[in-house]
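Problem statement: downstream parser choked on a complex file, so we are re-checking the raw output for the S-adenosylmethionine run. The parser issue turned out to be on our end (a line-ending mismatch), but while we're here, posting the original submission so the record is complete.
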Amino acid sequence: MHVFTRKYWGGGLALAAALAGGIHWAAAQQQIITPSARELNKSFDADASQWAGRFEHEGRAIYDKRYEILDYMHLKPGMDAADIGAGTGLFARLMAQRVAPGGTIYAVDIAKAMVDYTAKMAEEQHITNIKAVLGDPRSPRLAPNSVDFVSIIDSYHHFEYPKDMLLEISKDLRPNGVLMLVDFKRIDGVSKPFILNMVRAGEGTFTDEFRNAGFELIEERDDMFPDNYLLRFRHRGAKVE
Ligand SMILES: C[S@@+](CC[C@H](N)C(=O)[O-])C[C@H]1O[C@@H](n2cnc3c(N)ncnc32)[C@H](O)[C@@H]1O
């Protein structure tokens, strides 16, 4: 069993409830839902311009450090990349400049309001190399072998089915493709209450989840932000440069 399945369930009660609800054992193993993630995800499918106000402002550490995060992507003209959990398209728009000419950015989200907003902003700003993609909680719905790079920024802890998502992403990445994760440091008794309430696990558990999905950690930065860390992974099936 993967490390994260054990941590997710938080005891036999949830599993018993799932089984009583008629879910087969194997399916229950996959059914690694964080209740708060599902609830939070519902709230994203609403007025996206309001979310833009919350995501795209000075004082949000990820926004303040957006160009530093962008530099860590090592994007080059002609590369194809996906930002999964793209939200209002903040990073997709920046990434699009770096891969032009010739490269495409897939801005994937499961909230239709976010996808529509990203497409509208790209059109208004005449950014022609962003494709806004409506994903599924279990899959980004990208073509296999279609991207050189994937970013997941402040979104992985929102994934309701992280194991399924990582399996699909590993198929979508081209050989030698890189995945970047930016998420919250979650340390019991130390982290801020909103992080402890919203984020289901810390860096160690998330790293285990990526390793279990076949990814190898190639870079770790936990000194860039007070409350976040940045990890870069390569899929173990990939050829190392
Ligand atoms: C906190 S927002 C972060 C947005 C953006 N990455 C940023 O940092 O500004 C999280 C986003 O992840 C999306 N999301 C949640 N689960 C997802 C999944 N399985 N696939 C794609 N997007 C997902 C939500 O709809 C939401 O827009």
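For whoever reads this later: The chain has two domains: 1-32, 33-235.
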